[in-house]
Amino acid sequence: MSHEALTEARAAFPHGGHPIEVERTTFRYADHVAALAGQAAFIGAFKARRQAAFEAERARWKAQGLDSFVAEEGPHEPATAIPPGCFGVETAAPGNVWKVLKAVGDQVAAGDAVAIIESMKMEIAVTAHAAGRVREIRAAPGRILKAGDVVAVPEG
Fold first, then answer.
1. Which positions ≥6 away from 108 have C-beta within 8 Å?
2. Is the same domain home to 104 and 48?
3. In a domain, 141, yes or no
4. Cα–Cα distance between 110 and 82 in angstroms, integer?
5. Nearest partner of 114 among 104, 101, 123, judged by Cα
6. Bridge partners of residue 31, in order along the sequence
7. Which of 31, 70, 118, 128 is deepest in the core (most CB within 10 A)?
8. Would 135 be classed as within a structural domain?
9. CB–CB of 85/133 below 8 Å?
């Protein structure tokens, strides 16, 4: 099967768009080695692209200061009290703060995203459950949060 046909089959198969052909045969290791040798250029190019993508991602991590891990010392910092007339916007899941979307003084409506955290390779919006004006931001990009940590404190 040519590279183009194989690529097309791989794209169509998960959607039921490629017929399955079953053929009886005997596996011969020598044939397998020969097939690998025949695909050596393609395999080498794939490995080079994969390594280049990995190195580019590591460079992005380093540029963002995310290329090393520093264990937290002692217990997690205690929750600071929410001022009267305010409410906390808490994260429902643990993760790293990827982006803070609101700033002190910004107005938020119920359901507005205040920040985005990354958890298990997913982006999760941290949303306000009520309307108000942001009084405090308690998280910054790169900070590790535990479930229930307060990201922002609007008054409303």
1. 89, 102, 114, 128, 131, 132, 133, 134, 152, 154
2. no
3. yes
4. 18
5. 101
6. none
7. 128
8. yes
9. no
